[in-house]
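Fold it.
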Amino acid sequence: MKKWYQIYKPELSDTLRLSIPIVIAQLGVVLMGVTDNLFVGRLLGAVPLAGAGLSVSLAFLVSSIGVGGLSVGAALVSQARGRNDAAEVNRLFRAGLYVALLLGLVIALAGVVVAYFFGLFGQTAEVTEIGRNFMIFLSVSNIPLFLFVAARQLCDGLSFPRVAMSITLSALLLNALFNYLLIKGVGPFPEMGVYGSAMATLLSRIFMAATLIIYILNSERFRPYFQPAFRSLAVGQHVRRILRLGLPGGFTFFFEVATFSLAAMMAGWLGADQLAAHQIAINLASTTYMMATGISAAGAIRVGNAFGRSSQRAVRRAGVAALVLVTVFMGLCAIVFLTANDWLVSLYLRDNPDVSALAASLVIMGGIFQLSDGVQVVGVGVLRGLSDVNVPSIITLFAYWIVGLPISYLLGFWLGFDVIGIWFGLLGGLTMAAVLLPIRFFRLVRRLKPDAVEKAAT
């Protein structure tokens, strides 16, 4: 055991050092949604919370293809850095911004279409009206969000994650401030009610994108990658490469997010109280999940850098280190969920004991599937580092849509387990993915040879 620790200690240390700022940045992103729900729930009540929460889930679903697709950029930048190719890094950055703008416009339009047909989701009239208008705000805000995600790939891929972290935390504070000012209408700010929360998210995301891009273009640490000679280099091939590798990765993310969004809809079919309880519990689970995606991103960067250096041993160690870290982290999160579920729910709602009790039981379920959730997302990340994106998409489609959702519907409606049954289905899908994705990674690692690493992903 001591020998194993000595072998992996440097990799664990490097991955943890890279993970912490990314985890904090990821937490900041998801905490914007948590902040929105906290302000809406405490200031306006359960029904506005249900409408806004459902819109957040659907908007996250629509945007997941773009966010997941753009996330391949950090691994590609890390691979280029491993080859000491500064020109390649420059072209990947510019190509990522073009892809972000393209996907942002397309997915914003798709979000508006979803908002138009919001009534088809079978919710109550009040939840439908709130959800439709909230969705439009969030759809527009995806454009600056995608630009931020694309620019962030450069920072993370070059192992400068603190830049995006600092900007994200600043935006989180700005989002909380605007939530209060715009929901209540303080001073010169208009009273927008529940839609003030959506406007706060839009303004915060604009701040994030503009600040990060301006910083990158003016910072000394990035100057080696922005030499004048690089400006004339064509990026069309790199745009196509990001789309070719990114879209399957985006669909991998989509299949998981879609599972949780459809679970939210099923909870809404059971009633507004069940939906509100589900939104509280899934908000908390999403917080730990997004933190786990930070470890996943660090794993993808470390694996990608080793992949670029043609080192099979380094690839294996980077993958194992990421899986160990996420197991420890999510294990600690599971303990918190299982022991402090009532207190966590009390942060969202007051004076609604029925919803609070149901939400507390769902938080316990969230604690049970923490380990599976963490392992599967890191599995996707380390495979992304090897530019392996097609098979993970198939695995997640199978795990979430063939295993998870049918179990949720069967237990929730046919067998009468209500919203608890829906969450048992989520647990089944996550566990299946958590088993299959690491198996895929270690099979690919066994195929690697120091002189032929480029044959890894097939």
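The chain has one domain: 2-455.
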